[in-house]
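User: Hey, my collaborator sent me this sequence without any context and asked if I could get a structure. I don't really work with proteins. Can you help?
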Amino acid sequence: MFTALLVALVIGGLIIFLLQRRKNQVLKTEDGWWGAGAPPEGEEDLTIRSFKVTTTDEELEDLYRRMDQTRPVPSLEDSQFHYGFNSHYLQKVVSYWRKDFDWRRQVDKLNQYPHFKTNIEGIDVHYVHVKPKTVPEGTKAIPLIMVHGWPGSFYEFYGLIPMLTEPSDPGQLVFEVVCPSIPGYGFSEAPRKKGFDSVCAARIFHKLMKRLGFQQFYAHGGDWGWLVTTNMAQLEPKTVKGLHVNFAPPSKPGLLVTLSIVLGRRFPKLFGFTETDVERLYPCMEKLVLESIKESGYMHIQATKPDTAGCGLNDSPVGLAAYILEKFSTWTDHDFRNLEDGGLTRKFSLDDLLTNVMIYWTSGCIVSSMRFYKENFGKGLDVPHAKIPVFVPTGFACFPNELMHTPKLWVKQKYHNLVSFSPMQRGGHFAAMEEPRLMAEDIQQFTRSVEEMMKKKKE
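Assistant: No problem. I've predicted the 3D structure and written it out in structure-token form, which is a compact way to encode the shape of the chain:
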């Protein structure tokens, strides 16, 4: 009896020790230098400089000349968006872009919020920093960094920013928002050396937030922004107060996830699967395998030879628009593949879509943005951050038309302190841009929950 009790205590103590040890595990990283040549001697330049988006007559004339010289390609009959961007509809988009789209007006819209640049690890990092005009007495604005993905940009958050910094309900939390461009995207300088992956971006954004005076903050991300902010939580879990994401594919599926895929359709309750989970996951071959193959061709190109395809896109504005806007069609709703116009204007305006394209065109960043896939996938699937759980309080917004459906069980395999899991009413991959109000509400609810939890711990 005594021996059995002793063995039980030892085993129990060992399990607690291992769990605690794992909980204390953080992602390791080292400073890098991504500028040209060797790092200069002397202290780092910590200057923060104001930045404005600009344009010129020469820039627009070059754009129009290239558009006018495009050679249209006829689409196959009855092909809709199943072969990619429908060429007939592309001509209509290009016509609007050429004759009606006002880039100068959109530049003014981009500049409605303050832009800045600062040099970190040898490259200029661009970001938008929006402070609330008013903060309720007795409270403080909550710092929040929001990170975009591909083929998006900081502009994805423009509809969301005012809902967080100037909420209509006086009882809601007020945020101070920082939206950086991932290095190599938008107006952030591209790394000059190989190896710049999501962990490097996470490290740089931590340095950015500290440079802005934030010792703790919340983080939100989708697409690559999901991985960058996740890495931020793994690097400095005490700095990131809470992590909110709307994309969380299993980075390294374990036994439980595998079993849930095999048995979940027959025994859904055993894995906590809802009717929506079953509907979105099964049949597996169609929903998880074939669908992924249909939509991941771009990923294989960008993860292997990004510069080859990127050269053409960097030279042709129409080719660039087709490549980017096709994602805003299919990734918003897979059923949009069945429409001649790809359903593009059902959820977005052409002005907003073309503004995002113009950020890529005017900054010339398409090749460097594509290289981010090569840098991340080129290191294999067994990278350190894939093995480390996240213990920072996490909120997951589960949008119904996301590229890959992630049940709550799967999310919890990575995010061990899952505070909220919110099935959203509508929305797809570009949720912050498509459904800013729903996203703002979920960020509000999640942050309030975490703040209340922390308040109770202090008491």
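In plain terms: Strands lie at 48-51, 115-120, 123-130, 142-147, 175-180, 217-221, 240-245, 394-398, 418-423. You can pass these tokens on to your collaborator as they are.
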